[in-house]
Amino acid sequence: MLRRFGFFVAAALLAAAPAIAQDEKPVQLTFGGGFTGVYGDGADHLGNGGNFTVGVLFKTSSTIGIQGEYGWNGMKQKQLQLPVSAAPITGGGIPTNFFADANMQYGAANVLFSPKTSGKAAPYLITGLGVYYRPVSISTPAVGFATVCDPYWYVCYPAAVPVEKIVGHRSSTDFGMNFGGGVTYHIHQTASIYAEIRYHYVWGPSIDPQVQPLSGTTSQNLSANGRFLPITVGVRF
Fold it and tell me: Closest Cα to residue 207, out of 157, 168, 163?
């Protein structure tokens, strides 16, 4: 899938070879922010949050642009209950709250297509590939022993392990893709505002605990593939 998508992006870049139109600013800076929704299995492990993006847009023609972009998405703290015991045994124990603080950061190369329009408002489509970094910190107010197995926290301990206020810090760096669209509204000859919505899919790591620590039943592979839907409003100038 990555290879096919890469061919698509390369073809779009080659098609953008015509000279830049005289009335277009060849390079634009972009700044934006907004809301980020978490979807799929990740919604049970990570909370919705906000986003901030900064990028540079290179206009290769009147309808095609190439954008380099950095994005930061902070997720709200999510709470799960796991049994904690005073002795290192598997299963049992008192249900105790565990918390996860996480964010998603990425660098992406995107192709932006905007059809020619006569008004100040111009719709556009955007798609691209990127590298996604997702760190997470796990904490609990309890002290004791617990089994922790969660792919979106990048942790799987089939046997009971000691826990304290900070259980651990984990992260994963993976490839991903994004696609979506938006509207640009020109407020000045060299400045505009935009609103867009994009779907991000991240190919995350997978773990296979073999046996579910809490139930004792054999499980299938657990995957940390991510699905995010940022809604962003910003400026280009």
Answer: 157
Dihedral Cα 170, 223, 50, 58, nearest 10 deg: 100
The separation between the first and the last C-alpha atoms of the chain, rounded to the nearest angstrom, is 34
* Eight-class DSSP state of 19: P
pLDDT per residue over 22-56, tens digit each? 456 899 999 999 999 999 888 887 889 999 999 99
pTM metric for this prediction: 0.75
How many helices (H) and strands (E) the chain has is answered by 1, 14
pLDDT, tens digit, for every residue of 130-186? 999 999 887 776 656 666 666 666 666 655 655 555 566 788 999 999 999 999 999
Q: Position 26: which residue type?
A: P
User: Cβ contacts of residue 43 below 8 Å, gap of 6+?
Assistant: none
User: Residue 187: helix, strand or coil by DSSP?
Assistant: coil
